[in-house]
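Please produce the structure of this protein holding alpha-D-glucopyranose.
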Amino acid sequence: MNIVFVSVEVAPYSKAGGLADVAGSLPQALAPYVNAVQVLTPLYSQIDRIKYDIQTTAIKGKISLGKKIIPYALHQTMDIDGKTKIGFIECDQFFGRDGIYTESDGEGFADNNLRYFFFQMVVLDLISSGSIPVDILHCNDHHTGLLPLMMKTLQLKVRTIFTIHNFLYHGHFSAEELNLLPGSTKTLLTKTQWDNYSALLEGIDHSDIVTTVSPGYALELLAGLNVDVHSLKRIQAVKANFSGIVNGIDTEYWSPERDQYIPFHFSKDDLDGKRKNKAALLAKVGLAPDMDAPLLGSISRLVENKGFPLINKLLDEFVELGAKFIFLGSGSPEITDQLRKASKRHPQHIAFDDGFNEPLAHLIEAGSDMFLMPSRLEPCGLNQLYSLRYGTIPIVHRTGGLGDTVDPWTADSGTGFVFEPYDINELRKTMGLALKVYHSGSDWVKLMQRAMSMDFSWDQSAKQYFRLYNL
Ligand code: GLC
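Below is the modeled complex.
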C-alpha cells in the first residue's frame, strides 16, 4: 500500500500551526504498517535546502492555470526519520516567499486560492503521469480539499481520505476563480449559500473517507455546533464515512527525559529537574524568581478563538492572587497590544514574547506549573498533550480534542482542570480551583504524575488511520 500525504505545512521544514506537527509525525508513524509513505508539500524560501539536502530534482513539469503555463520541479529526499520520503514542489512564483499563508503583517496573500489550485494540480499531474505511485491519497485541510474531486476525474484506483484540522477555514473561492481549474472538475462542484465555493466542503463531499482530529470534534461537527446550515447538510450527507481520530505527538521530540532544548531533564519519578526548569524559565523571561508562585504558561496563535478575550480580563485579578504568566505567540495586533500592556503593568508577574520561538516553547512546557488553553473551539489541540507529558497541568475549556484528552481533576483522579460553558466566571472558578490544588502540595505532585503517565504517542492513532485506509 502506497500512501501519499499532502499538506501545505510540514514540521520541521515549514510550520504555522498544529497541522505542521501532524504532517511531520503521522506519516512516520504510518511507515511500519504500509509499503511506502511519501509526503508532498510546497518548497518555501524559508526551507533550508542545504540543511535538509533538497538538491536533486527528480521531476520537472508544467501546469496550465487559466491562460498561463507555469513550470514546477519536484525535489525528493528521505525525511529526517530515514523511512518516509518527502517531495518538495518548487515554483518560485507561488512558494518563493517567506510566509506560508501570509505577508509579514499577518495579511493573507492575495493569490492564496491560486497557490493552492496550482499545488493541487501539480500533485494531480505527478499522480496521473505515474511519477508517484499511490493507493491512498491523504489530504489535509482546505488547501488540498479539491484533490479528491480532481482524482475522481482521473478514474484511477486510488482511495482518498480528507482530514479536517480546522473547520473554521474553508478556502472560499469565486465562480470566476473556478475557471482556472481543469474543465472536468468544474461540473462536480457545489455552490455554498454565499454564491461561492468552499474547498473544505468539496473535500468532504468527494473523499472516500472523511476524518477530523478528535472524536469529540467529529461529534460537534455532526451536531452542527458552530456550523452553518448549508455546511451541516453536506457533513451529514457523508455521516457514514465520517469519524474522529485524536492526534498523537512526537514523543521523542517532546520528551521531558530527552528534550534537546531544556536545561534539566526530568521524569514522573524524579521531578527535581522540573523545578530547576521553572527557575531557568523565570530567569529567561525576566520574571521575579519566586518559586512558590504558580506559573501559568501559554503558547498559542494570538486569535480570539484561543480564549484571549477571557484571559485578558482575568490577568489583573490573578496577579493579585500571586499567579505569574508567560505568553508566547503572535497574531492579532489587538491581542498583542493587550498582552504587551499587561506585561508592562506587571513586569514581575507577566512576561510576553511576541513571535515563534521553538526553544522557548519547550522551556515553557517544561518549566510552567500549569498550561492555560481556554480555546472556545479546539479540533484537537497539541499543546495540552505536550503539557500533560511535562507535568504542566492543562486548564482547558471542554471542547473538541481538549475535552477528549484532559480528564477533570477530582481528589484522586483526573489530569487537568476543565470548564464549561465558555464563560469568564467558569474560567475564573476553574483557575481558582487550580491555584488551590497547587498550594495543597502533595495532591499537586500526584496530579502531575497522573498527567505524565498518559500515553499520546502516535501508534494508536496511526493504527486507526491504517484501519480506515483498508476499509
Ligand atoms: C489545527 C487545529 C488544532 C489541531 C491541529 C492539528 O491547528 O486548530 O486543534 O490540533 O490543527 O490537527
